[in-house]
Amino acid sequence: MRSRKGNLALETPVKEIGSIKRRKNSKKLYVDFYYFGHRITRSTELDDTPANERRVRDFLNRIMERVEEGTFKFAEAFPGATKQEKAFFTKLEGREYRPEPHQVRFGEYTKEWMKTIFPTFGSPTKHRDYKEAITTKILPYFRNMTFHQISGHELFKFTESLKCTRGANRGKPLSRSRKINLLIPFRAIWNDACDQHRWVIKSPFDNLHKKLPKTEKKEHTVIRFHDWLTFVDNLEEHYRPIAELMILTGMIPSEMAGIRKEDIVGEYISLNKSYVLGEEKKSMKTAFRKRQIFITKAIRTRLDILKDRTSSPYLVTTPRGTRLNSTDFAKVWKKGVEQAGIAPMTSYSARHSFAAWSLTIGINPLRLFGLMGHASKQMVFEVYGNYVEGLEDDAEDIFHYFGQDFITPRKSKSPVPFRDSTGDSFKVSAASY
């Protein structure tokens, strides 16, 4: 490396300030000096000309002046240096290294975040979902952007680019709820970066939800009674009592998979755990989902079948003796629907049908609210009440299927038989309560 020295209007010898050099096979000028005993060699990206040499010399002179004054900041003088170098010299300067948003690339920060903060997420399910969202959707789009470049508009463009990658909806835009879920790990990274570097900047997530197109809510299927019987007849025999227990209680597969035999005490089933994607949850989806279900004769019949056929401590198991798996059960359910030749429905339809059937045969909506484990009573009125009107013809069959002990409060001294009820009692709607 060839050294260039010039005259300085300073008393300090040039060699103590630094030198201007040009590397072999390069036409660019380099600065070469020592700072805190460490040699620093950096390209100026300027061609080797007399005019540029004077500019670089002025630059070196200013560095020396600021070093003597104690105001020189390595990170500001060399913004292209690595993060490690900036942090190292900033510490020697007695300062705290805090890069600005335009100096930090999202991909570089996320790489460190994945090593340090990401492992602290305790839930395997959240760990898997976050990693998939980050590696397959977020990083490919934002990797080379700085945090300064990530604006609300850029974030909206990102959400608009998201498409389904598999299944029947492949190539179609993701739903609003799916987009929001993908933004959860993105927001976590953004907030951690702002906290670590103490940035006070406008969040690109502000008001983003107002820009996302609303997804039309799908009306959940409510099963007609004769369709239900046809479906059960076509379902694999092992799963029949499981499906029936679902529609008799309003439970979903993950809740049923969490039931231990010890949770059945006396006349009640205690729901306090769930089993989701191979992971046992220590609590339910919400505090309201933790509930007790009274065991009617119809429910007892199915419980006895489930208990007697397995040696597992868990109540609901597969033919192999393992705990019920929601994904596998969904496939079995779909096969049963196809063989029955009825309208498409999912296992979640059993929960909605339980609610609609209950309202049809006159159950107190406030009691249903507790059985469903909802956080809001309004959910019962607004969602399930709308489904009742078309089920009047099935009411008597549903009543006998559920049993008198489901309808009549156990402490009632004078239960009113179903056959004595008026037809009007079956026409339940949200406006009725």
UniProtKB/TrEMBL annotation:
Belongs to the 'phage' integrase family. Residues 412-433 are annotated as: Disordered. It comes from the Bacteria. Pfam families: Arm-DNA-bind_2, Phage_integrase. Residues 211-400 form the Tyr recombinase domain. Keywords: DNA recombination, DNA-binding. The keyword DNA-binding applies. The lineage of its organism: Bacteria, Pseudomonadati, Thermodesulfobacteriota, Desulfuromonadia, Geobacterales. This is DUF3596 domain-containing protein. Gene3D superfamilies: 1.10.150.130, Intergrase catalytic core.
